[in-house]
Write a structure and sequence with these properties.
22 helices; 12 strands; 12% strand; binds adenosine-5'-diphosphate
Length: 703
């Protein structure tokens, strides 16, 4: 039998003997079979047609189990030939010898068939392995018995005594010899040296005491308990060797006419085959009792060794976790283990707490009480585990612990039940990590965010109050201001009597400033409408050329500042779109008045109206002071004035561009600026024909 997948080591004397040593082992086994078979024939009880014991069949089966499948046929033939030859040499007739040879070959074939799917040599490590061997042995020895029985019987009849004797002698040989050649679990040390010497001595004494003397049939099974003792204390390997040696000793003594069976057979006139059958019955029984005990012993000690190894691994892991507290308790909560991590975290040593304390020692009592009140669970430590009872799994939760030194810790604790093989809870496992720092920083962050949110909220409220205030004040001031301007006009038109030249100059200054004030009030009002979302356009068909011309007229640029050349470039056809003409005029006025304001005398301002079909653009370029790159981003903010404007005492409020932006956006358009400090700026108002066409955000800037 072979297993192709097993790694092959050339010098390994296993089922696949190395190619070079294979012929040696093979021939040695066949020679051994020949001698054992011949010896058995020679030593067969007087008058018996079959031998008392047939160890050759044990060796033959062992050889069959270690033979590669492709060599099995040759091996079987060799076994038939060798056993036939041994029988002939032992003095049997050719016919009987060939029959017995075939019986041996068939037996090996049957046993090997039972192990066809097992590795070679097959394992002998569990009761299942023993069960398979017993079944294979019964069938193999049965086949041999039938063939041998037919061989020695008159034609067509099986001789029952011969068949029984062959069955017993072959079965005993297979059960005693073959387990020795199979693969066992590693041997564990069970017993002391004294026992190792004592047990074989007692076995030898019991065999000698029963089988070397005459009679004593009731004591025939006396060696069996001693064999079981050996099996229970020393395992499979030892038990198989003792079984073999006992089998040899008992057979030799029985063949020599000693022990319980020959005298009994003589007294009761049993057929001579009966002697062997009785002896083999003892051997088979001994094997069937001691082998399971030996197997269980080995299995148990392998399991114990494995359990001990995993307990040691677990212990190692627990001790290596110096930053994680791993604590186990029994069902009542008493600490059963306390690792180095727990010692580091809590300040107690394992000796302080194991078997002496419960986790109540470090758990915050108030927190446990609050949790039990919140959940309705029993108070005390039960709240840690109550939710886990009766269901598998674990639970993670933050808890407050207090160390031996009184320091408060926040730990993230995972609790899970420890279960025995039957699934009963035998204790609890707690694994905790110190999360004090991260939880505290989370807390600080959360309250900072909360404060930030409240401040933001207050700012929004303040801003709304300011917008409302500005709207109310602007609205209230507009009416008296309009009246002031009206009355100034009356005075200037001499409707209240003629005024002197100096009075006129004063009235004109008052009129100019009153109008500026009114303009400012209107801008404030408009911005507060934009902010409160109540700024509505009055849209109508509008020729942008008219809008720009009207703005220039209203502004009366030459009056605002002389020495700046203002030039308008516009198409000679109408440039119409749906727009609020009044607001557009306001926007254009702001752009042009800024351009004029920030351009020194001798400079120029160019206003270009263009229509590319999808949008109308009004760009206002000047050769003025320009704008620093750092200021560009904030130009469109309310009340923002570049430091240059403030320093140069250029009059203004910082509202104009935010109004331009608001008007542009309400029309679905944009206002952008490109400027070079010292050389001038270009502001471009772009108004799409179809305002739903997405345009870039208003106030986008290029320099
Ligand atoms: P105001 O003109 O009342 O100061 P604006 O909102 O119209 O307010 O303009 C904001 C700022 O933008 C101005 O104070 C000025 O610093 C800058 N600015 C606007 N237009 C120009 C321009 N054409 N050339 C240089 N700077 C300008």
């Amino acid at each position: 039998m072979t297993t192709e997948r097993r790694p092959h080591r050339p010098d390994e004397p296993d089922g696949r003997w190395a190619p070079r040593s294979w012929p040696l082992w093979w021939s040695a086994a066949l020679v051994l079979i020949f001698f054992l078979a011949s010896a058995s024939v020679w030593l067969a009880p007087q008058g018996s047609s079959v031998a008392a014991w047939w160890p050759a069949s044990g060796v033959a089966v062992a050889l069959g189990l270690r033979t590669r499948r492709d060599r099995l046929a040759a091996t079987l033939v060799a076994i038939v030939v060798v056993t036939t030859a041994a029988n002939v040499w032992g003095g049997r007739t050719w016919g009987t010898s060939v029959g017995f040879g075939l019986a041996n070959g068939a037996e090996v074939a049957v046993v090997v068939w039972f192990f066809r799917s097992r590795p070679a040599p097959p394992p002998f490590a569990s009761l299942t392995d023993l069960g398979r061997l017993v079944l294979a042995t019964v069938c193999g020895a049965g086949a041999a018995a039938v063939i041998a029985g037919l061989t020695v019987a008159p034609v067509g009849l099986v001789t029952p005594a011969a068949a029984r004797a062959v069955f017993a002698s072959h079965a005993a040989a297979i059960l005693v010899i073959v387990p020795m050649t199979m693969v066992h679990l590693p041997q564990q040390a069970h017993a002391g040296r004294l026992e190792r010497v004592l047990q074989p001595l007692v076995l030898a004494a019991s065999i000698g005491g029963v089988y070397a003397v005459e009679g004593a049939l009731p004591l025939a099974f006396a060696p069996m308990p001693v064999l079981v003792w050996g099996a229970a204390r020393f395992g499979v390997r030892f038990a198989t060797v003792e079984l073999l040696l006992s089998g040899i000793a008992m057979s030799l003594l029985t063949t020599a006419g000693r022990g319980p069976f020959p005298t009994t057979a003589a007294r009761w006139d049993y057929p001579p085959e009966m002697v062997g059958t009785m002896l083999q019955a003892v051997l088979v029984s001994s094997a069937l009792v001691s082998l399971p005990v030996a197997l269980l012993t080995d299995e148990l000690s392998a399991l114990l060794a494995r359990a001990r190894a995993s307990a040691e691994t677990l212990q190692g892991v627990m001790e290596a976790a110096t930053q994680t507290a791993i604590i186990t308790t029994d069902v009542l909560g008493r600490v059963t283990s306390f690792n180095a991590g727990a010692e580091n975290l809590l300040g107690w040593t394992a000796a302080d707490v194991v078997g002496r304390a419960t986790p109540a020692l470090w758990h915050d009592e108030g927190q446990l009480a609050r949790r039990s009140a919140d959940t309705g669970l029993e108070p005390g430590l039960r709240v840690l585990v109550a939710s886990l009872e009766g269901r598998p799994g674990s639970e993670r939760r933050d808890w407050t612990w207090r160390s031996r030194g009184g320091e408060e810790l926040i730990v993230s604790l995972r609790v899970s039940p420890l279960l025995d093989a039957a699934g009963q809870v035998t204790g609890w496992l707690g694994i905790a990590e110190d999360v004090t720092r991260s939880r505290r920083s989370e807390q600080v962050l959360r309250s900072a965010l909360e404060r930030e949110r409240e401040a933001g909220q207050r700012l929004v409220e303040l801003d709304r109050a300011k917008t409302e205030f500005v709207a109310a004040v602007s609205h209230e001031l507009r009416t008296p201001m309009t009246s002031v301007i009206g009355n100034l006009e009356l005075l200037l038109d001499d409707e209240a009597g003629s005024v002197s030249a100096s009075q006129r100059a004063a009235l004109e200054r008052a009129d100019r400033n009153a109008r500026r004030l009114l303009g400012m009030l209107e801008e404030l009002l408009l911005l507060s409408r934009v902010e409160s979302g109540t700024f509505e356009l009055r849209v109508g068909r509008t020729d942008v050329r008219d809008v720009v011309e009207q703005a220039l007229h209203t502004l009366d640029v030459t009056r605002v500042r002389s020495g700046v050349h203002v030039e308008l470039h516009e198409p000679d056809h109408p440039v119409e779109l749906e727009a609020d003409g009044e607001q557009l005029e306001r926007a254009v006025m702001n752009l042009v008045s800024n351009a004029v304001k920030f351009t020194p005398a001798g400079g120029r301002v160019d206003i270009d109206v263009e229509d590319d079909g999808t949008a109308v653009t009004v760009s206002v370029s000047d050769t003025g002071v320009g704008i620093e790159a750092a200021d560009v981003d904030r130009l469109f903010d309310r009340f923002y004035r570049a430091p240059g404007a403030v320093r140069g005492a250029v009059p203004g409020t910082g509202l104009g561009l935010s109004i331009v932006k608001a008007v542009a956006e309400r029309h679905g358009g944009t206002v952008t600026v490109a400027s070079t400090p010292g050389s001038g700026s270009t502001f471009t108002l772009r108004l799409p024909r179809n305002p739903s066409t997405p345009e870039g955000p208003a106030g986008r800037v290029g320099a």
